[in-house]
Amino acid sequence: MNNTILIKNALILNLNNFENKKQSLLIKDDLIAEIAETIDEGNVDKIIDAEGKILLPGLINTHTHLSMTLFRGLADDLSLDSWLNDHIWPMEANLNGDYCYIGALLGAVELIKSGTTTFSDMYFYMEDVARAVEDAGIRAVLSYGMIDFGDAERREAEIEENLQLFKSCNGMADGRIKVFFGPHSPYTASEDLLIKVRELADEYNMGIHIHVSETEKEINDSLDERGLRPFEYLEKIGFLGPDVVAAHCVWLSDEEIEIIKKHDVKVSHNPCSNMKLASGIAPVSKLIENDICVSIGTDGASSNNNLDLIEELKTASLLQKVSTLDPKVLTSDEAITMATIKGAEALGLENEIGSIEVGKKADIILIDTNSANMVPDSSSLSSNVIYSANGSNVDTTICNGKILMENKKLTVLDEQEIYDKARKAIKELKEAI
Ligand SMILES: N[C@@H](CCSC[C@H]1O[C@@H](n2cnc3c(=O)[nH]cnc32)[C@H](O)[C@@H]1O)C(=O)O
Ligand SMILES: [Zn+2]
């Protein structure tokens, strides 16, 4: 017996279809089954009237630390170095699986409410994050953040932990969960760790999620230590490939842009985190000019401080315009692709998600234009979404054919209960310091 949902009168914002034409879309089980001007309403289980609403693919956030919602507002106005070493890492020392589960659920509430259906995460206690993903109904790529600082024993344990996560969670939750390797960065993971990860990623056909070239300090330290910039070093040790998603990529030489292009490395751009930690401005328009796949990420809620991907896209666009003094760069159409098809490509999921096409997974959101900040209707749907809207204009969120929010009401998660538990968790974590 199929579960069918008909969405009618929707303005579909698709990659090749930036038109204002009302259409209907039929969901059968977890898939988009039909898109047409009209679809027969008989025999469908549920009808959603999307009059005045823009329909687009569920958004894809390619760099998060979801459980860090617990540390939102904990330590603001600091550099990355001090923020991590003096504040975040001491707090993280007291985390456990239950705290990470509740932090991930809080993150999931925020993602669903702001229209993100897929996120790529790197953190600890990832089996518990997987449990939260399963319960919340969203889609995720999960990696365990591996750090060895050159310690061989720690290296073995970290790799084992990530492999264990792969074995226990890859394909879990009706295929909504996929597992990647998560070597934290070239400054916290040793050359031996990175080389081993490359070998295992090839063996297990797993992607790799890593932070690269986030701050100027990272570049200078890398030059001091090895005489090479981070991407030059990663290329030299044979680490790079099309399965690598590099978060940040702020400090890049022209030669490194060539290296990224040559190895088809995927970039996750995180403008709010880069601005807040004063890390710098990633040369995104230059990367796009070079046909490099640039996706979008929020980073953790503790360096952002929210997970609103529409706000992130607007920031990305405006930041490129002001830094190049060219208003034509990073248009709203390009911004939409960063959170949809480019995000899917970055995660190797382009055949499943990232666009509204028959046969793809039914990961769909509706944005209500009947809101003060979206009236009158812009001639371009993407302009109205990127420049005028924010996550709170998202009205309906569907993932894998299941409705997770309708008319701004969550259908699966109990948000008040989650807020209360998250407040209690952070209180306990602060007391433990
Ligand atoms: N197994 C590791 C866990 C690493 S999880 C990933 C780490 O990335 C940290 N993190 C969050 N945002 C950033 C960032 O922007 N740059 C670098 N690290 C970050 C986060 O706090 C967490 O410690 C360990 O034993 O420490
Ligand atoms: Zn990060």
TrEMBL record:
Binding locations of Zn(2+): 63, 65, 211, 299
Ligand binding (substrate): 92, 154, 184, 214, 299
Quaternary structure and partners: Homotetramer.
Keywords on record: Hydrolase, Metal-binding, Zinc
Coiled-coil blocks: none
Cofactor: Zn(2+)
Name by which UniProt lists this protein: 5'-deoxyadenosine deaminase
Leading EC class: hydrolase
InterPro entries: Amidohydro-rel, Deaminase_MtaD/DadD, Metal-dep_hydrolase_composite, Metal_Hydrolase, MTA/SAH_deaminase
Classification via CDD domains: ATZ_TRZ_like
Residue span(s) of domain Amidohydrolase-related: 54-404
Lineage start: Archaea, Methanobacteriati, Methanobacteriota, Methanomada group, Methanobacteria
Entry superkingdom: Archaea
GO molecular function, one term: metal ion binding
Remarks, miscellaneous: SAH is a product of SAM methyltransferases and is known to be a feedback inhibitor of these enzymes. As a result of this inhibition, organisms have evolved efficient enzymes to metabolize SAH via different pathways. The pathway found in methanogens differs from the canonical pathway, it uses the deamination of S-adenosyl-L-homocysteine to form S-inosyl-L-homocysteine for the regeneration of SAM from S-adenosyl-L-homocysteine. 5'-deoxyadenosine is a radical SAM enzyme reaction product which strongly inhibits radical SAM enzymes.
Catalyzed reactions: adenosine + H2O + H(+) = inosine + NH4(+); 5'-deoxyadenosine + H2O + H(+) = 5'-deoxyinosine + NH4(+); S-adenosyl-L-homocysteine + H2O + H(+) = S-inosyl-L-homocysteine + NH4(+); S-methyl-5'-thioadenosine + H2O + H(+) = S-methyl-5'-thioinosine + NH4(+)
Function: Catalyzes the deamination of three SAM-derived enzymatic products, namely 5'-deoxyadenosine, S-adenosyl-L-homocysteine, and 5'-methylthioadenosine, to produce the inosine analogs. Can also deaminate adenosine. The preferred substrate for this enzyme is 5'-deoxyadenosine, but all these substrates are efficiently deaminated. Likely functions in a S-adenosyl-L-methionine (SAM) recycling pathway from S-adenosyl-L-homocysteine (SAH) produced from SAM-dependent methylation reactions.
Cofactor stoichiometry and binding remark: Binds 1 zinc ion per subunit.
Listed pathway(s): Amino-acid biosynthesis; S-adenosyl-L-methionine biosynthesis
Organism name: Methanobrevibacter thaueri
EC annotation from Swiss-Prot or TrEMBL: 3.5.4.41, 3.5.4.31, 3.5.4.4, 3.5.4.28
Signal peptide start and end residues: none
The keyword Cell inner membrane is assigned to this record: no
GO BP terms: S-adenosylmethionine biosynthetic process
Family assignment from sequence similarity: Belongs to the metallo-dependent hydrolases superfamily. MTA/SAH deaminase family.
UniProt KW Metal-binding keyword: yes
